[in-house]
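[Discussion] Sanity-checking designs against the backbone

I'm trying to build intuition for which residues belong where. Below is a structure token string of 396 positions. I'd appreciate it if someone posts a full sequence so I can compare it with mine line by line.
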């Protein structure tokens, strides 16, 4: 659980509290496949009129590998980003007593009997986002909990975009199921969606914010432009019209959460350089503070081979740690959700984006005029694509 004590340790103090995790004896899920469904078969089935024709895009929205970067620190890139590209989110469909889960390396859906998750009605269809931090914790220790929920937010943005685009009705039923295992270290089920194609079957219907006409194509345009030789961002000014569109579209999404958004605008036509607060669909410039980006003061680590002076803007997502809640996990899901939304816009514009937590909290809180109890939980850089990452895009 991400509670107040956890935030005190891994919020502003995450660098000094950091410790690596431990190797485990096994990383397999306790499910034995009894059948396989090839993704190419689902792709052909996508054109049929049956209610389940959306499943190809759903199973292509989270773990499926769409890009291989040969000059990156991380070769395989899934459609939904994760920290260091470590697999930590599983999309599982439950239907009639069986579980369906993509094996991204085989590009096949594994079908197994449900001996893993309890609390599901067999005659209903569910989409489950399983947080599996067993591999993530090796590199990040207990810090993995924050990263896992951010990753869940990325995946949820993609899944809800497909459901909305395909006209599939759904509602959140989080908390209605649990893992059957006696020991479920590093794993949890934060998101459960009940889905139906038929009209009039569900109340409390959710819909994702509008992105573009075809989010499936949009997912494959997102890039982070990481390089083995270090990060150098080239200058290319972002058009004002694109920024205005994002600011307008972002409002409805942010208002549904308790997350606040600030940013540093560095290179956007029509906007002065400096720190801004996003408030009710408008950007309010912070006066009397730094109007020139100071990367070496913002970055906490990896300064020697990171040159980010060419970025367009840098978003910072924050919230009040004194909120009267038992767990802050949903705040990180919301931040990942908003960050992925912005990343999809960046891909639509043909530019890159990268989520990161490598920043100096104390420095930023001063210039963003944040209070002591405010926590910056996530950030997202948006910058021009270099076109030099030696990427190979797979045909999904």
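Best answer:
Here's mine. Compare freely.
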């Amino acid at each position: 659980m991400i509670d107040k004590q956890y935030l005190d340790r891994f919020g502003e103090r995450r660098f000094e509290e950091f410790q690596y995790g431990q190797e485990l004896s096994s990383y397999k899920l306790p499910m034995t496949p009894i059948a396989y469904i090839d993704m190419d078969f689902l792709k052909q089935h996508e054109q049929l009129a049956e209610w389940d024709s959306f499943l190809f895009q759903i199973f292509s929205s989270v773990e499926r590998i769409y890009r291989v970067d040969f000059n990156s620190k991380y070769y395989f890139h899934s459609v939904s980003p994760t920290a260091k590209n470590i697999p930590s989110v599983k999309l599982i469909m439950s239907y009639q007593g069986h579980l369906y889960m993509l094996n991204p390396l085989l590009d096949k859906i594994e079908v197994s009997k449900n001996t893993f998750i309890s609390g599901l009605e067999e005659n209903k269809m569910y989409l489950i986002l399983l947080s599996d931090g067993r591999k993530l914790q090796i590199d990040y220790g207990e810090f993995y909990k924050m990263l896992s929920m951010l990753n869940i937010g990325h995946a949820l943005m993609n899944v809800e975009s497909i459901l909305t685009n395909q006209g599939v009705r759904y509602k959140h039923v989080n908390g209605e199921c649990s893992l059957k295992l006696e020991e479920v270290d590093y794993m949890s089920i934060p998101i459960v969606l009940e889905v139906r194609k038929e009209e009039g079957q569900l109340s409390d219907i959710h819909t994702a914010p509008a992105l573009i006409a075809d989010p499936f194509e949009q997912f494959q345009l997102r890039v982070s432009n990481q390089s083995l030789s270090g990060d150098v961002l080239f200058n290319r000014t972002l058009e004002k019209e694109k920024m205005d569109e994002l600011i307008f579209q972002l409002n409805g999404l942010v208002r549904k959460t308790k997350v606040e958004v600030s940013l540093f605008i560095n290179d956007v036509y029509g906007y002065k350089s400096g720190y801004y607060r996003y408030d009710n669909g408008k950007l309010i410039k912070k006066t009397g503070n730094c109007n020139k980006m100071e990367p070496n003061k913002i970055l906490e680590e990896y300064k020697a081979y990171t040159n980010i002076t060419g970025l367009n803007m840098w978003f910072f997502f924050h919230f009040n740690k004194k909120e009267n809640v038992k767990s802050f996990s949903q705040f990180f899901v919301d931040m990942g959700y908003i960050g992925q939304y912005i990343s999809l816009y960046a891909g639509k514009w043909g530019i890159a984006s990268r989520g990161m937590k490598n920043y100096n909290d104390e420095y930023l809180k001063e210039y963003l005029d944040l209070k002591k109890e405010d926590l910056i939980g996530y950030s997202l850089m948006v910058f021009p694509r270099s076109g030099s990452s030696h990427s190979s895009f797979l045909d999904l």
